[in-house]
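User: I'm new to structure prediction. If I give you an amino acid sequence, what do you actually give back? Let's try with this one:
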Amino acid sequence: MAKTRSTKSKQSILKKSINIITKVFLYFLMVSFIWVLAYRFINPPITLLMVLRNIERKADGKSFKTDKKWVDFEDMSDNMKRAAVSAEDQLFLKHIGFDMKAIEKAFASNAKGKKVKGGSTISQQTAKNVFLWPGRSWVRKGFEAYFTLLIELLWSKERILEVYLNVIEMGDGIYGAEAAAQEYYGKSCKKLTKKQAALIASCFPNPRRWTPKNATPYIRHRQYLILRTMNRLGPLDF
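Assistant: Good question. You get back a string of structure tokens that encode the predicted 3D arrangement of the chain. For your 238 residues, that looks like this:
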């Protein structure tokens, strides 16, 4: 009799646990869907990376700094759009969020203990920057894949690129193409030349280490490669 009660008690606990997990999962799906859908129309006011960077600045004895100014897609230089796609994700207009060849290449390199750049698409980077925290854990990667699929489903390619070029880090306390253009060239991003846009994009992998103001030979070489790719790709056909 005691064993029967114990078994029923365990089954009851298991059932309650499953119910709670199911409700949490469904709640997460609903909230995340509404969140992503809202950002199709509302510009993200701030990202977790911006918050974390300011915490780091404060810890280093620096003042808070978040230079950013939103620029609508149609008001952004085509040179900046093309430079970003050329530098980060040349198949941006063709894939549905993931570049499988780049992912396979990254896995193969990781298996050999090497680091690979370029595994993440613009869609993945946008999902990470807007909805998640910095990091390289498998848990975060799983959430990144989920939010990437959501933005590809709910946003247009124009919206993805617009958000990307307005929120990504482009220097110490500098976020988005407009703030970068003002900081490095004293002009609006709408007026960036091909060379200027390519130089900004060449620093994307590590914008706090590299800067257009003091471009190293490596960055100049990246700029040259990006310019060559921009010429090959031609205008972006949205």
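You can read the tokens as a compact description of the fold. Here is one thing that stands out. The mean pLDDT is 90.
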